[in-house]
Amino acid sequence: MSTEPEIYPVPADLAARAHMDRAGYEAARIAARETPDAYWSEQAKRLDWMTFPSKIKDVSFNKEDFRIRWFEDGVLNVSANCIDRHLPHRENDTAIIWEGDEPTDSEHVTYGQLHERVCRMANVLKANGVRKGDRVTIYLPMIPEAAYAMLACARIGAVHSVIFGGFSPDSIAGRIEDCGSTFVITADEGCRGGKKVPLKANVDKALEKVSGVDGVLLIRHTGADVGFVEGRDRDYETEAAKVTAHCHPEPMQAEDPLFILYTSGSTGKPKGVLHTTGGYLFWASYTHELVFDYRPGEVFWCTADVGWVTGHSYGVYGPLANGATTLLFEGVPNYPTVSRFWEVIDKHKVEIFYTAPTALRSLMREGDAPVKATSRKSLRLLGSVGEPINPEAWRWYHEVVGDGRLPIVDTWWQTETGGVLISPLPGATDLKPGSATKPLPGVELQIVDAEGGVLEGATEGNLCITDSWPGQMRTVYGDHARFFETYFSTYPGKYFTGDGCRRDADGYYWITGRVDDVINVSGHRMGTAEVESALVLHDDVAEAAVVGFPHDIKGQGIYAYVTLNKGVVATDALRTALVAQVRLEIGPIAAPDVIQWAPGLPKTRSGKIMRRILRKIAENELGALGDTSTLADPSVVDDLVKNRAA
Ligand code: 6R9
C-alpha cells in the first residue's frame, strides 16, 4: 500500500555547526542508556543550581515500588534560571517580542525589563497572600503578562494552572475546584482575529460556581469596561505601584511542583498533569537547544498559546532558560490577512518557526501567493507539533514556506512528557516527510501489540516508553492512583502513550494517532467522554456517543450521535442548541462538527457502546463495519448507515 517516501539528508553546513551531529547523537543515546546518572548529571550543568543534585535518577514503573524522581536533592529556582542568570551578559537583549492581534501592536521586552516586571508581579502575589505551594489560576491572552505571571509564580514557589482563553466559565470553575486554587490572574479581554474574548466576564461567571478564590488580579489589556468586585478584585497597575522591583527567588527542591496543566483523557474530567521544578525545566531547556539547534541571539517563535503545554515549554520555559528571544503572538494566522505568519516572520526576523499542522493545512488552502509575497529569508529551521503532519502538508511547508532550503523538525510529545521525545535533530537525522523520526537520547521506546507483546523490527502497534526521562509528569494532581492506572497499568512496567505507531525498516517512528477515546481537533486534545457529558446535560437528550472523523483542516473533527428523549422532535434548532450547549460547557474548541440523530446506539449485550462501528460510519467506511453479530440489536446499525449525516 504505502510507498516509501523520499529522504531529505542532513545539510552539510548544519551537520558541521550542530550541537549534536550523528556521532554525537549515537554516543548520547548509549551514554543515557548505559550510564544514566553520569550522563544526566553532566547535562544538568546547563541549569543554575543553588545546590547541585547528587541523586540523579530514582525511578520504578512497577506497581510495588512505583516512583519517578529526578535530581531529587537539587535546589533551584525556575525564574532565576530563566531570567537572573542571563542578566550579567544579556540584560539589554530582548527576552520577549510581543506581537499583538493588530499588526500595529508590538513590544520588545529585554531580560532586564523581564526581571523587573516578574519581580513586581511576584511581590504583588505575595502582598495579596499567595504563598509557596498555593495554586494560582492564570487565564490570560497571549500577552507578555502571561509569561510574567507564570514566572512570578515560579519565583515565589506558587504552582500555576494556566487555562486556555477558549475554555468556558464551567471549565474554569472545574479546574479551579480540582486544584483548590485560591488566586486568579486574568485580563479584561483578549483579542483574536479582530474579535474580543471576554476573559474577565468568564472568570466572574466561573467564580459564581466555585468558592475558595479570595483574589482576582485584573490586567487591563484592551481597557474595556469590565466588572470589578470590590474586596475580591485587584487592579494590577495599582498593586504593582505599591511594591518594589526586587524579589528574592525562592529556593525550591527539584521535585517541588512547578505547574499543573489540565488535559483531556479517554475517561472522565480533564486530568491535572503535574510537572516539577528540576526535571521539567531541565527537559524544556535541553530539548529546546537540541531539537531546534538553538544558538544564543536567535529569534524563536512557537505559535502555540501558553494555555497548552507547547506554549509552556517552547513559548516560555525552554527558550527563556536558554537565554533566547521568544516571540509571543496574540493573534491568529489569518488576520488581518492569510500572510500574517509570514509577515510577522519578516517583521521580527524570526529564525526558528514552530507551528501545528492544522495551521499549515488551513494556510495551504489559500495557495502559495500569500506566502511568496513575503521574504522569510531570516528563517533557518521549521518545526511541527500537535498531530501527525501529512506528507502533503510537510512538502508544502518545506517547499513553499521554506523555499526548499529549510529542514523541518516534526516533534512528537505530549502534555505528560513535558517536552519533545521523538524528533529529528537538525544536524543528525535525515528527514522523511510525515515521520517524527527517532527518539531523543534517554527516550526508550517500545511498540507492543494489544496484549503487551513486544514487537521488534519494522512493525506497527501501540507506543510505550520503558524508562523515565527527566521531563516526565509526576502525578495527576490530587489523584496519584489515577496517574498509575491511566499510564502504567495497561502494559505493566511501561508508560503507555495512548498513541498508535509504526516503525519502519530504518527504525523511524511514524505516529498514526490516538488509539484511545481521545480525539485531536486542530492539535487540541478532547476526550469523547467530556463532549458526551456536555450533550447529555441537555433536557432533550437521552444518550450521546462521540467519535472523531477525518477532517481536511482540523485533522480530526467531532462527530456526535445523539439519541433524543421519547417524544422530542429532532429539529435544526435543537441541533444548534446542542452545539451551543457544548460551547458553553467546555468551550468553542469542543463544538461538534456533525450531529447525527440516532434512534438507537450500537451496544453489546452488556450495554457497551461499540465505538468501532460508530467510528467507521463517521469515517464513511461503510464496507468495513466488521462483525455486528454481538450487538444487542444489529438493526440500529442499518438505521445509522441509512441516515448518515452528509
Ligand atoms: C505537544 C502536544 C498529545 C498528543 C499525542 C499525539 C499528538 C503531538 C505529534 C502528535 C503525531 C506529532 N501529537 N505531536 N502526533 N506527530 N509530531 O501536542 O501535547 O496536547 O498533550 O497532545 O498529540 O497523539 O499523544 P498534547
UniProtKB/TrEMBL annotation:
HAMAP family the record matches: Ac_CoA_synth (MF_01123)
UniProt binding sites for CoA: 192-195, 310, 334, 522, 583
Residues reported in the UniProt entry to bind Mg(2+): 536, 538, 541
Protein source organism: Brevundimonas bullata
Domain AMP-binding enzyme C-terminal positions: 530-608
Function summary: Catalyzes the conversion of acetate into acetyl-CoA (AcCoA), an essential intermediate at the junction of anabolic and catabolic pathways. AcsA undergoes a two-step reaction. In the first half reaction, AcsA combines acetate with ATP to form acetyl-adenylate (AcAMP) intermediate. In the second half reaction, it can then transfer the acetyl group from AcAMP to the sulfhydryl group of CoA, forming the product AcCoA.
Gene symbol of the encoding locus: acsA
Post-translational modification: Acetylated. Deacetylation by the SIR2-homolog deacetylase activates the enzyme.
Keywords per UniProt: Acetylation, ATP-binding, Ligase, Magnesium, Metal-binding, Nucleotide-binding
Residue ranges constituting the Acetyl-coenzyme A synthetase N-terminal domain according to the UniProt record: 25-82
Membership in a protein family: Belongs to the ATP-dependent AMP-binding enzyme family.
Protein name: Acetyl-coenzyme A synthetase
Catalytic activity: acetate + ATP + CoA = acetyl-CoA + AMP + diphosphate
Record-listed N6-acetyllysine modification sites: 608
Class in the EC hierarchy, top level: ligase
Any one GO molecular-function label of the UniProt entry: ATP binding
Gene Ontology biological process terms from the UniProt entry: acetyl-CoA biosynthetic process from acetate
Keyword Transport on entry: no
E.C. number: 6.2.1.1
Cofactor: Mg(2+)
Nucleotide-binding listed as a keyword: yes
A Pfam family the protein falls into: ACAS_N
Ranges where the AMP-dependent synthetase/ligase domain occurs: 88-467
